[in-house]
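Residues determine shape. Next comes a sample protein:
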Amino acid sequence: MTDLQLPWIRAVVDDGLTETWYLRAGTGAPVLVLAAERELRERLVGSLAGHARITAPEPPTSSGIESSTWLRGFLDGIGVTPRVILADEFFLLGARELAAQHMDGDRPQVVVVDGGAIPSPLNDAAAETLRLLSPR
């Protein structure tokens, strides 16, 4: 019997406002995956881990804080500034607000993935993410 090898590790960070569990995998340019559904999060991490450094937080269940505040605290807590944010419809507004906060020229690109239409849009979102990470 062999051990199951997952492409990610699960970790936790406490930013002082809330404790957030997240998946991380891969090396390279940082990509933030924001997906409300666990299955979609895991599929995105698995498909992109060989191409980038992926971080995928689990949404807080009832912290009572705004999405963009939670995301900023989470990223500060793990010390990552993403180049690309891959977000489902649940996180789209928070992802755009987070990207808009980066006014120094390192603004991350936001890619939208439609979790209800897997697999085609998943492949499209992954391809767009990889295109954004390629050298210009």
About this structure: The mean pLDDT is 80.
